[in-house]
Design a protein that fits this description.
alpha/beta; elongated; Rossmann fold; three-stranded antiparallel beta sheet; single chain; signal; 5 domains
Length: about 600
C-alpha cells in the first residue's frame, strides 16, 4: 500500500507539471482592412495581415485567428471570441492594419463598412481601441496590441463636425495603458502618419516579421530594432513608437531555444530529490522502503536510511511503552488481589524492567530523531548551496550573453549611425546641387483652404473656407497668433501654420458675437430684453427713457423788422435760381436780383438781396 501511495504521489506531481506547461499558451488575433466601401482601397493592409499572421504561426503560437476586410459587427465578434481565448493564455497579441481615427483624444479602428459622414458617426460605426485592450487583458504574462493604422485618413477630410471645437487629429493619439505588462505599438508616433511604402508590404510590417520572432529577443529591444529599420527604410520620415511598459525581466515573443524553464536547471538529482520529498511527506516505513528499493545508493539513499532508523526507533519505543503499561497493570492487579508477596515482588521487578526498557527506547528514539533532523538540515544546506552555485552560474552566463548582445547592438547601432551620417551627407550634397522642397505638392489655394478649415475649427475664422486668402483670413491668423502665442506671417497660408493649428485640440480664439447677440457655448444667440427695455451700445438691456420737449431760444426767433419784410414779400416770387438763407429761413432770390454780403450787420456772415 505504501508503494502504491508513493506511486500515486509521483503521478499527481507529474500531472501538475503537465498542467502548468499546458497553461503556457500564446494566442493572436490579426485583422487587415483594405476594401473600404466609402474610401479608396488600401493596397497593403490585407497583405500585411497575411504576412504577420504567418509569422505568428511559424513562431509556434497555439492559436492564430486571421480576419480580412471585416465589418463593424464582424470585428466586434472577433474581439469577443478572442477575449475568451485569452483567459487561459500567457501571451495575447492583436495586430490591426487599416484605417484608424482619433476623436477628442480617443482612438478608434475603422471597419470596412463605415461611412463616417459626421463626427457623431464615429461612436456608432467604429470600434474603440479600448475594446481591443479589454480583449487582451486576461492574459497572464504579456498583453500586446500592434497598430499599423496611422495612415492619412480620408474620412477626416470629408467628415462634418457637429461642434467647431471638436478635435479630429492627424494619425492616432498618445495612449498610456493602465494594465501591467501591456504594450501598444504604433506604426508612427502619435500625431503623425505612416507610409505604405512602394512594395507589397509596409515598412512597419516588414520590420515586424524580421525582428519579433527572434528567439529570446526581449520586446523592448525588438521594437527598438523595428524603429531603427523603419526610420532607415523611410528616409527618417516615419518613426514607430511604443507606449506602455514591462517589468525588469526580458519578455521575448518567442522563447530562446536553448533557454531552460524558470528556476534551477534540471539535473540527474532532481528526480531523486522530488521522490525523496514525496516519501518524506508520506512519512511511513513502506514509503522509505520503496524509495530505497528504487534508489539503493547515493546521498538521498543514506538520508532515507536515517529516516527509516527513526521510524524503527519509534516502533521500538511504542512496543516498550506498551509492555511497561501491561507490567504496571499486572503489578497493580496482584496488589489489589493481595497475592503472595513473592508474586508481587516478581511483578514489581518485571514492571521496573519494562519501564527501564521503555526509557531506553525513548532515549534511543530521541537520538534517532536528532540524527534525522541533522541529516535533513544537511540536505537543505546542500541543496541551497547547489541552487546558489547554479544561480551564480546562470547569472554569469546571462551577464555574458547580455554583454555579447549589448556589444552586438552597439556595433549595429554604430554601423547604422555611420550609414545614416553617410546618407545625410549624401542628401546634403544633393540638396546643395539641386534643393528639393520637403513641403507637400499642393497649390496655394489648396493650402489656404486647409489653413482656413483649421482656423474655423479652433474658432478664429467665421468666413467660409473658399481658398481665397483675403483680409478676413489674415485677421483670423493674426488672432490665432495672439491667443496661441505664435508668430506666423498672417499674409501667407503656410504648412508650418497648418501643423501648429492642427496641434490645438480645441477652441483657441474667443467667440465674438455681433451687436444684439451673446455667446452661449460655441454659438451666438440673440439677446431678448423684456418689455420697456432696449439693447444699448454695451450690448446690455436698459430701460427706455421718455423724450422731453426741447425749449426754443428767444434769440432764435426772427426780429420784428425781418418778420415784416418776410411778410411783405410776394407770396410767389419769381426764382432767379439762387437761394438766400438768413435767420428767418431760406427762400429763392427774385428775378433780376442778386445776393450781396451785408456790411452793416453785426453778423459778418449775413447776406442780403439787392435788386436793380
Amino acid at each position: 500500500m505504501g508503494a502504491l501511495r508513493l506511486l500515486a504521489l509521483l503521478l499527481f506531481a507529474t500531472w501538475l507539471g503537465c498542467g502548468v506547461a499546458h497553461a503556457e499558451r500564446r494566442v493572436a488575433l490579426v485583422i487587415g482592412n483594405s476594401a473600404y466601401k466609402s474610401a479608396p482601397r488600401l493596397a497593403n493592409p490585407v497583405n500585411d495581415a497575411t504576412l504577420v499572421g504567418g509569422m505568428f504561426k511559424k513562431a509556434g503560437f497555439d492559436n492564430v485567428d486571421i480576419r480580412l476586410d471585416v465589418s463593424a459587427a464582424e470585428m466586434r465578434r472577433a474581439l469577443r471570441e478572442f477575449a475568451g481565448r485569452t483567459r487561459d493564455a500567457e501571451v495575447a497579441v492583436i495586430y490591426y492594419a487599416g484605417h484608424g481615427i482619433e476623436l477628442d483624444g480617443n482612438n478608434y479602428l475603422i471597419p470596412t463598412d463605415a461611412t463616417l459622414e459626421t463626427d457623431g458617426d464615429v461612436l456608432d460605426e467604429t470600434v474603440a481601441l479600448d475594446r481591443a485592450l479589454f480583449a487582451v487583458e486576461p492574459a497572464k504574462q504579456l498583453r500586446l496590441v500592434i497598430l499599423d493604422a496611422c495612415r492619412d485618413n480620408p474620412f477626416a477630410k470629408t467628415m462634418k463636425r457637429t461642434l467647431a471645437s471638436r478635435a479630429i487629429g492627424r494619425g492616432l493619439a498618445k495612449i498610456e495603458p493602465t494594465s501591467p505588462n501591456t504594450m501598444i505599438a504604433f506604426a508612427a508616433k502619435a500625431g503623425s502618419t505612416a507610409s505604405d511604402g512602394d512594395s507589397r508590404n509596409s515598412p512597419f510590417s516588414t520590420a515586424l516579421v524580421e525582428r519579433l520572432p527572434t528567439p529570446g529577443l526581449g520586446l523592448r529591444k525588438a521594437f527598438g530594432f523595428v524603429r531603427d529599420d523603419v526610420l532607415k527604410n523611410t528616409g527618417y520620415k516615419q518613426e514607430p513608437y511604443v507606449y506602455g511598459s514591462l517589468g525588469g525581466e526580458d519578455v521575448p515573443l518567442v522563447p530562446a531555444k536553448s533557454a531552460a524553464a524558470p528556476g534551477p536547471q534540471a539535473s540527474p538529482q532532481d528526480a531523486i530529490r522530488r521522490d525523496y520529498e514525496l516519501a518524506l511527506q508520506a512519512g511511513d516505513r513502506d514509503a522509505w522502503e520503496a524509495f530505497l528499493q528504487a534508489y539503493p545508493d547515493g546521498f538521498y539513499s543514506n538520508l532515507a536510511r536515517v529516516q527509516l532508523k527513526k521510524i524503527t526507533a519509534e516502533d521500538v519505543r511504542a512496543a516498550a511503552a506498551d509492555k511497561a503499561r501491561q507490567a504496571e497493570e499486572e503489578k497493580a492487579r496482584l496488589v489489589a488481589e493481595r497475592a503472595k508477596k513473592t508474586e508481587q515482588d516478581k511483578a514489581a521487578a518485571a514492571a521496573k524492567a519494562a519501564e527501564d526498557a521503555r526509557l531506553a527506547a525513548e532515549k534511543a528514539k530521541q537520538v534517532e530523531e536528532t540524527k534525522a533532523a541533522a541529516a535533513e538540515q544537511r540536505r537543505k544546506e546542500a541543496e541551497a548551496a547547489a541552487a546558489k552555485a547554479l544561480a551564480d552560474k546562470q547569472a554569469a552566463e546571462k551577464a555574458l550573453a547580455d554583454r555579447i548582445a549589448s556589444d552586438k547592438a552597439a556595433a549595429e547601432q554604430a554601423k547604422q549611425t555611420a550609414e545614416s551620417k553617410k546618407q545625410i551627407d549624401s542628401e546634403q550634397k544633393v540638396a546643395a546641387i539641386a534643393p528639393i522642397s520637403s513641403t507637400p505638392t499642393l497649390s496655394s489655394q489648396e493650402t489656404a483652404k486647409l489653413v482656413q478649415s483649421e482656423l474655423r475649427r479652433v474658432g478664429c475664422l467665421a468666413a467660409p473656407t473658399d481658398g481665397d486668402w483675403n483680409v478676413s483670413s489674415e485677421r483670423s491668423l493674426s488672432m490665432f497668433n495672439k491667443y496661441a502665442g505664435t508668430k506666423f506671417d498672417a499674409k501667407l497660408a503656410s504648412f508650418e501654420a497648418l501643423d501648429a493649428i492642427k496641434a490645438k485640440p480645441g477652441r483657441v480664439c474667443p467667440l465674438v458675437c455681433d451687436h444684439g447677440f451673446k455667446a452661449d457655448g460655441d454659438a451666438c444667440v440673440k439677446i431678448a430684453c423684456r418689455v420697456g427695455y432696449r439693447i444699448n451700445d454695451n450690448n446690455e438691456c436698459e430701460k427706455v427713457q421718455d423724450k422731453k420737449p426741447v425749449a426754443t431760444r428767444e434769440d432764435a426767433k426772427p426780429r420784428d423788422g425781418e418778420r415784416r419784410k418776410v411778410e411783405s414779400a410776394p407770396s410767389k416770387p419769381q426764382a432767379s435760381g439762387q437761394i438766400l438763407c438768413n435767420t428767418t429761413g431760406c427762400r429763392p432770390v427774385k428775378s433780376g436780383c442778386r445776393i450781396v454780403n451785408s456790411k452793416n450787420s453785426s453778423d459778418s456772415g449775413s447776406q442780403r438781396e439787392m435788386c436793380n
